[in-house]
Amino acid sequence: MTSNIDTSWEPFLSKEFNATYFKALKQFLNEEYKNDTCFPPETEIFNAFKHCDFNNLKVVIIGQDPYHGLGQAHGLCFSVNEGVSFPPSLKNIFKELEQDLGIPYPESGNLTKWADQGVFLLNATLTVRQGEAGSHQKKGWEQFTDAVIKTINEEKENVVFLLWGGYAKKKAKLIDKERHFVLETGHPSPLSANRGYWFGNKHFSKTNSLLEQVGLRSVDW
């Protein structure tokens, strides 16, 4: 399950992997994946850690749960596999991207290209049962991902954290705003976006501006 994580993460994650709560989580997941259909596939649970080298990490986007439909989730928050229809939130992310940067609406919903450039696409809960949103919450994942956010906060500087929606905004308490940049806006879901809480946030251009201010390469969104 954890074998494909980029080696740059190992010094920071080994303590968590050996903790009692994580061993209990692993046991729970073994049963879930054996008895039910769960997403993402076991080999893709830690894709965010596989594609985003800790040393190159410069942006963090925090989601809540993986998509729970067949073939959608592959371990990167808001991202879907090639050829999969875009979920509503991802459609709104791409609409904002198009308006903000004046670039064509993406043809693929796979955000691996972002992750490979140092955009860490982290869900607070990394797994889910098919068709049951939130089914793997409060089993230990949140403790693990909070520890990951704290590690990034403590070990790095000038990271841009994008907190979209109420759940992600709660993670702001884990981040030192003297060391990092925090941009907050509404969630890209239709419910939030249609109420005027998402569109026009310009988080993509703002992120690139902040990165360039501290001498880092902007993201090719």
UniProtKB/TrEMBL annotation:
CDD domains (UniProt xref): UDG-F1-like
Reactions catalysed according to its record: Hydrolyzes single-stranded DNA or mismatched double-stranded DNA and polynucleotides, releasing free uracil
Gene Ontology BP term (one): base-excision repair, AP site formation via deaminated base removal
Example of a GO cellular component annotation carried by this entry: cytoplasm
InterPro entries: UDG_fam1, Ura-DNA_Glyclase_AS, Uracil-DNA_glycosylase-like, Uracil-DNA_glycosylase-like_sf
Keywords of this entry: Cytoplasm, DNA damage, DNA repair, Hydrolase
Cellular localisation: Cytoplasm
Family of this protein: Belongs to the uracil-DNA glycosylase (UDG) superfamily. UNG family.
The protein, known as: Uracil-DNA glycosylase
Gene: ung2
